[in-house]
Amino acid sequence: ATGKVFGYLLEKRMYYCTLHRSIKRHDL
Questions:
Q1: In angstroms, rounded to a whole number, what is the distance separating the alpha carbons of residues 26 and 28?
Q2: How far apart are CA 22 and CA 14, in angstroms?
Q3: pLDDT recorded at residue 27
Q4: d(CA 13, CA 26)
Q5: pLDDT at 4
Q6: What DSSP string describes 1-28?
Q7: How far apart are CA 10 and CA 22, in angstroms?
Q8: Sign (positive/negative) of CA torsion 16, 19, 24, 27?
Q9: What is the pLDDT of residues 1-28, one digit of tens each?
């Protein structure tokens, strides 16, 4: 169960990192 939660958090963190990066790239 711990590994499942850790994987979920890691995936969520990577998603937010990618989202933040795309926002910075398209920032006007």
A1: 6
A2: 12
A3: 64
A4: 20
A5: 93
A6: -HHHHHHHHHHHHHHHHHHHHHHHHT--
A7: 18
A8: negative
A9: 688 999 999 999 999 999 888 878 766 5
- Give the tokens for residue 25: 């790239």
Q: How far apart are CA 3 and CA 10, in angstroms?
A: 10
Cα separation of 13 and 19, whole Å? 10
| Residue 15 token pair | 């998603």
Question: What tokens were used for 14?
Answer: 């990577």
pLDDT attached to residue 5: 93
pLDDT score of 20:
87
pLDDT given at position 25: 74
